[in-house]
Amino acid sequence: MLCTFCSRHVPWTESGPIVSFSFDDFPRSALAEGARIIESFGGRATFYVSMSLMNKSNALGEQFRLDDLYLLVDRGHELGSHTFSHCSSRKVRLDLFKNDVEQGERAIQQGTGITASNNFAYPYGEVTLKSKQALASMMRSCRGTCGGLNGGTSAVDLNLLRANSLYGDVDRLEMARKLILENERRKSWLIFYSHDVSARPSQFGCTPDLLIATVAAAARSGTRILPVGQVVAELERQPQSQLVV
């Protein structure tokens, strides 16, 4: 139901296959290791930021610092938003969730002078139909954690982009390779998401070896490796999107 209703469809073009890598929250290791790996293959990634996590540490490791935000933008990566307090749309009232989304965007601008890309990811991947509908007019795109591919033979739903976890070590590589091959076959858009990148990652992160192998597989397939916002910008130049309720 979440992937069917309250959708904002834009037609898919012949620009695929495309792969996007994204990091949520984000731990410093995502920039130190993740960005470096993706850059080594000529790509750039999207980092979804909750400003309340800045300078903190948690199960994912040390979180980003202010300088990290400037650094990732200087290196050509995308700065997206992830609410201010990293709250779930399923656990707070809709008006409070919308306020937290807006506060997250403002906090990036006020704290850094950098304007966020207006591309959003739901904390915990938790979406409701009401939040999906409400954010349609607020965000250029919203990414969830519903697996699958975007585009190909169908339109892209900018209100809930499909994305696939990239967690664990190289024993998870076969799953990633299958997605890349199917994405290449369909000439569609594949989004991966992760958190920390370290030799001993959290349950929501991946090892450098897994990320290297996955990015290399995408590069070998001739896939373009682009931030989410760059793909959205290409789609926005297509005929007008359609809101489906």
Give a structural overview.
With 245 residues, the protein is of the alpha/beta class. It has one domain: Glycoside hydrolase/deacetylase (TIM Barrel), CATH 3.20.20.370. Helices cover 34% and strands 18% of the residues. It has helices at 28-40, 66-74, 94-112, 129-135, 173-186, 208-220, 228-236; strands at residues 7-10, 18-25, 46-49, 57-58, 61-62, 78-81, 119-121, 141-143, 156-157, 164-165, 189-194, 224-225, 242-244. Strands 2, 3, 6, 10, 11 and 12 form a six-stranded parallel β-sheet that branches. It has a three-stranded antiparallel β-sheet with strand order 9-1-13, with no helix packed on it. A two-stranded antiparallel sheet has the order 4-5. The longest helix has 19 residues, at 94-112. The protein is globular. The chain starts with 6 loop residues before the first strand and ends with a strand. The model has no long low-confidence stretch (mean pLDDT 95).
Which descriptors would you attach to this protein?
alpha/beta, single chain, six-stranded parallel beta sheet, TIM Barrel, 13 strands, 245 residues, three-stranded antiparallel beta sheet, 34% helix
